[in-house]
Automatic annotation (TrEMBL):
Domain RCK C-terminal, residue spans: 14-67
Protein name per the record: Potassium transporter TrkA
Pfam families reported for this sequence: TrkA_C
Molecular functions per Gene Ontology: monoatomic cation transmembrane transporter activity
Gene Ontology biological process terms, A to Z: potassium ion transport
Length: 109
């Protein structure tokens, strides 16, 4: 009746999306996941948004995902935690609008 196969337990987890995540501002389904991994949805402000709605990802969201095989968990975490090498956000800019100081002309009399 039962084969002598080991039971593989899926791994469920959530990954917090940082301000400099490469996924800020894109729809969930645009992320290419490793094999044997799937999205469950996004947790945003105590509300679960199912993956079927293909929500846009924002800083502070938790991406909820499942790895069907435990060996895929590290690859899935690395995929979902990708960030820009320089601080970047669609919602924030670290550059301040400041007037550029003018330098005195050398040719003025």
């Amino acid at each position: 009746m039962f084969n002598n196969q080991s039971v593989i337990e899926p791994s469920l987890f959530g990954v917090l999306i940082q301000t400099n995540s490469i996924y800020c501002g894109i729809p969930l389904k645009e992320i290419q996941l490793p094999e044997k991994c799937s999205f469950l949805g996004i947790l945003r402000k105590e509300q679960v948004i199912p993956a079927q709605e293909n929500p846009e990802i924002y800083s502070g969201d938790y991406i909820l995902a499942i790895a069907i095989h435990p060996m895929m968990v590290p690859a899935l975490k690395v995929t979902l935690k990708k960030i820009h090498s320089v601080y970047y956000s669609l919602n924030a800019c670290l550059l301040e609008a400041r007037p550029i100081p003018t330098q005195p002309s050398l040719f003025r009399r």
